[in-house]
Amino acid sequence: MATEYKKIKGGVTEGRDEMNLAELPISILTTRRKEVPHILEFNKEKRFKNKLVYKQQWKVETIPEVGLPTVKDEGFLLGLFALAKRQGFPKKTYFTTYELLNIMGVKRGKRWYQEVERAISRLQALRVTSDNCWWNNKKKEYIGHIEATHLIESYTFWYKYKSDNKVEEVKKRKNSITWSDLILQSFKHDFIKSLDLNFYITLEQGISQRLYRLLDKWLYKKSDIEIDIFELRDRLGMSRERNKYVSRIWQKLVPACEELKNREFLEKYKILQNRRVKFVKASKGELKADNEDRSKEVEELTARGITTQSARELLKKYPDRIHKHIEIFDYLKKQDSHLIKKNPAGFLRKSIEKDYAPPQGFLEVKEEEISKKEFLKQERLRREKEKKEQKIEEEITQAIEKLSEEELQRLKEAARNEAERDSSLTPGNDFYEKSISVQTEAILRSKVRERLNPG
């Protein structure tokens, strides 16, 4: 790989992701170990450019007593990929638990050391069986069949053998994992992509993290993509048993999509006809700017006496409070306030955690600093956006009015059938009819909108 391993400000590592695992599930979206299954499957028919259709089958299984990894466990795998990149992708990667926890922005402590042990144990226990799913980047083709292969061959925690000085890990005082040939081939033939690990670990939801990895690969050279909602469910590791219906899957997806939209990774998302979901990526500069700003906030907190670890924790828990309370802190410092004389860093941290109200006089000063030009610019952009959306809605209404009675009736029937098919409500009451009517109208307008703006 040409790009050197580097650290993002604040101690978080620029990550790496194995590109097959970015889109194939090995973990499940739950934190409750009693509910963790020991088999995960994904099936799909894929049509290639030569018009041949291949049946893709992916199966992940493990020891029932161990259970499949969770998204949190898979996060540690990403941390191990980052450490492997630092060492030049060797067969055996050495690391300390402290290094791994630091990369993932996690508190150090006995509980987390045990969590790392359990996570690596679950990852090592995995066996994958694949038909036409695993891409061989050297041959530029999918491997026909892979039978029950591990991703991690073995692992060693040095402190479990510290009385034996012949063990290499004891000599180095480092743990190790030995990668399987399957993973090693991806390392060797450059089927590893960069991953914004800083962005990944600050996402609040496991499903958001899984969706981010999937879309980050698929939208690398595309501005948008569509995917069948049931295929998306399976690729994300969502339970098939609990997510049998479109409405249920969509209910789970929306919060994750909203988080990625709010973090400016996605520009928009929507569910289309034929149960497909469309994702539109935000412009490239936006996510980078967000990460730069967040790294700057960590640096600004540490410059005011807060430790790097504490700064990352505050940023993860209270991302929307940091800038405001730094400004308040600087204001108090200029005023030589008694509030920050004894323990400035402690006051700043507590003000963020408790979200203290601004002191008297601060808001007046802040208002004077607000740029009227910037305010007018934002207002102009907002009005332009509203005007554009209003124009589109008017065009949709006009297009519906121009439809023939026969065509309009056909579209309404198709929209109602789709609404009834996706509804989880029981027919036969006023609430059901009202709900179906609203959904039918929304689907109808969505279909007409697609006609006006295909793609």
Summarize the structure.
By secondary structure, the protein is of the alpha+beta class. 51% of the residues lie in helices and 16% in strands.
Features:
455 residues, alpha+beta, 18 helices, flat, disordered N terminus
Helix residue percentage: 40-55%
Overall tally of structural domains: 3
Shape: flat
Please state the structural category: alpha+beta
Low-confidence stretches: 1-13, 285-293
Radius of gyration: 26 Å
Biggest pleated-sheet summary: 4 strands, antiparallel
Written description of the protein model:
Strand 2 and strand 3 form a beta hairpin. The protein is flat and about 85 Å long. The protein has a four-stranded antiparallel β-sheet. A three-stranded antiparallel β-sheet has the order 4-10-9. It has a three-stranded antiparallel β-sheet with strand order 12-14-13. The chain has helices spanning 19-23, 71-86, 97-103, 110-125, 168-172, 181-188, 197-201, 206-218, 229-235, 246-262, 284-303, 308-317, 322-334, 344-354, 362-369, 372-402, 405-422, 430-452; strands spanning 15-18, 39-47, 53-61, 92-95, 127-131, 135-136, 141-142, 145-149, 152-156, 175-179, 192-195, 224-228, 266-271, 276-281. Helix 11 packs across helix 12 (308-317) and helix 16 (372-402) packs across helix 18. The two termini are 35 Å apart. Mean pLDDT is 84; it is low at 1-13 and 285-293. It is α+β, with helices and mostly antiparallel strands and 455 residues long. Helices cover 51% and strands 16% of the residues. The chain has three domains: 1-200, no CATH class; 285-369, no CATH class; 392-452, no CATH class.
